[in-house]
Amino acid sequence: MKKIFSIIILPVAMIAIFLSYAFSANTNSSVSHDVGWEKQLKEMNYLIIKISSVNIINGLFFTDTQAEKLNKLSSSFQSGDLPSLDTTGNSSFELVNIRRVYIKLLEKLLKKESVSDSLKNQVNAARVVEAEIIKKSLIVAQDPGYSGTGCQQCHASPALFSHYLNSSKELEIISPEKRAEIDKAHSLGLFGEKGMVRLWNMKAAADSILTDGQKYIMKNFRCCLVPPGDLSDPTNIGQAFVSNDWINYFRATRKLSDSDWKKYNSSFILPLDTLLRATLPGIKTSESKIRLRNAEAIIDKARKMDEIDFELQKENLCLKMKEALQLTALTGETIREADTRQFITAMFLLFNGNADLYEKISRH
Amino acid sequence: MPNSSHISRRHFIQRSCAFCAGWYIFNNLMIPEKLIASSAIGNNLHKADYWKSLPDKMTQCKLCPNECIISPGENGNCHSRGNRDGEYYSLVYGLPAVIALDNIEKSPLYHYQISGKAFSIATSGCNLHCQYCQNSDYSQVGPDDVKTFPLEPAEVIARAKKNDVNAINFFYTEPTIYFEYMRDIATLAKKEGMKTFCVTAGYINEEPLTELIPLIDAFVFGLKGFDKDYYSAVIGGELEAVKKSLKLLAKNSDKTWFEIVNLLVTGLNVDTAQITQMCQWIKDEIGKDVPLHFTRFEPYYKLKNLDPTPIDVLSNAYKIATELGLEYVYVGNLPGNEGCNTVCPKCGTTVIERVDFDVIKNTTVKGKCSCGNQLPGHWI
Prior knowledge:
The structure holds two protein chains of two kinds.
Chain A: H1 2-26, H2 32-35, H3 37-59, H4 64-79, H5 93-110, H6 117-141, H7 161-164, H8 176-209, H9 212-219, H10 243-254, H11 258-264, H12 266-279, H13 285-304, H14 307-325, H15 338-350, H16 354-363
Helix pairs in contact in A: 1-6, 1-12, 3-5, 4-8, 4-16, 5-6, 6-12, 8-15, 10-13, 10-14, 12-13, 13-14
Chain B: H1 9-30, H2 33-41, E1 46-47, E2 51-54, E3 58-61, E4 69-70, E5 81-84, E6 87-90, E7 98-102, E8 118-122, H3 136-139, H4 153-162, E9 167-170, H5 179-191, E10 195-200, H6 206-212, E11 218-222, H7 228-235, H8 239-251, E12 257-264, H9 272-286, E13 292-296, H10 311-323, E14 329-332, E15 342-343, E16 350-355, E17 358-362
Parallel strand pairs in B: 8-9, 9-10, 10-11, 11-12, 12-13, 13-14
Antiparallel strand pairs in B: 1-6, 2-3, 3-4, 5-6, 7-8, 15-16, 16-17
């Protein structure tokens, strides 16, 4: 019991402390005026896509021939005039810790080193804070009195949070049209107008290098910070939904007696809420409640099973949990057009600096 | 000043001697041998088959080529069979350590289609000691060292039905070491019209394997290399015995289906000459249409110091096998790689596409390509 609490409560407490630390500091920092919120948004976007890109390249098992072809294509894409994005420079107080953690993670992934549990927890906590900032920046930018340009058209600076923030306001579900706009805006921020057009023109060439199996994997790929199969915490962030972690989660819930479950089930549900909010910054409270209720029903089912049936059904339960949480349903990523999907694949594969990764694969 | 808690040297020596004497009497005279053995392994003894008595209550196991000679109270090299007072028992009967529902593609079994998943089952123990074993937590220990799920054969069938499963897969560890348990489950499964699969390294003597063949619908046979020194040093067995088992399966191919798996371990069994020799032998002695899976090694157990198998080593093995004329060659543990797909040897069309353990596309009709070629195996 004590162990379960340490598993569940400690990370939550860490996240809470991290959150309060970051947001209390917000009130008296001079924030984006001197560092440039626009620049920071782009750099954060860069870091997340770069990390995801390294993860997927490590996970697709390219052959030498594929790596050579991708190397050429990636070098050709990068030889054009792309905006220079610096990930080592200064940033506002809200983002400095998040960036530090993400950069640390990226360095590990580039060296193909394993990610320690401690770093995973830091990444998870950082993502939770980042998701809160994203959510607030979106809500503030939707205020009728707000106007911004570039990335700040949608993501208002934290400096404005206190002026505009109406805490009861929630974000709308992303429509297919809106999804296309978001994809375009994000790639504009990363590559500029010319770079985006060049990438669009290269998408078919990148696609042709992949096997059908790799295309199938890419079809379901979305941003991923910690690589799948290397997560120990059920509150993992990103696209990874790792059965072993969820199996351990279910096992922990099954250890509690009915009376203890009644008393302490929030200790298990709260991390799910955190996961939802970190993965889907824009999720409405009502949507979140429905998902949590569905998740709890699956946990109840798992708790009622005898040991043999649970062993047999454990992976099935994980899949049901994934369905219950519907992590991708609200982001609109499942409703992308085929050519947009191909463009996103090209973005992950040909991203800045990836030529070096392909070079290493070919040399190996 | 005398201290009440103080013990004199004489008292200390007296007490120590008394304790040692008591300990000796308790362990050697008071507890009968049978009780020691039984307490050490619990009460799940099931009379074993394939063994013979030797003088002085010794036994010799005849199940696998190890043919362990075992003293009373001792267990075999496989941790799963033991001598208890001159009788020989299976120690794992009815005590699986792993149960799960899996796609049979995980085995890997690519030419045997079933609907839905299979009930995978494994006890602890193994008669080989592969230094890279992925399941060493179960395979290199006995039943007392792992959590087990008491399941008699009839209960296995009942649970499979309850979970809408129509196949039993003896998987994860080496099934032949729990021969009696597997045979009894398979016999019941056959009566119920269920399919049975066995993922084995084939390190078993001819007689028990012959008994098993009619009870198993398909074998996945781990041919772990093709060099006798590699087999003895890294696997802990003899290559010739394994080849003999594989030939026996080939001889009985009208009764059972089988596919071969060869795990390529970085720097140890990836030599082009060795792979060529193995493929040639498979073609000549086993058959060119037997599916051959080359799988990628991941560092586990005692070989954590090695790198995963480079993809080009797998591609090279694939090339060697196909150029020699083997018709159904696969590459495994590489999600997204084209080597996971089935290509029709007659027209060259990719007819079945797989990612991980999932079939994502199948253009055959009951295993028949549109060119008219019937793929070997069992198709629904």
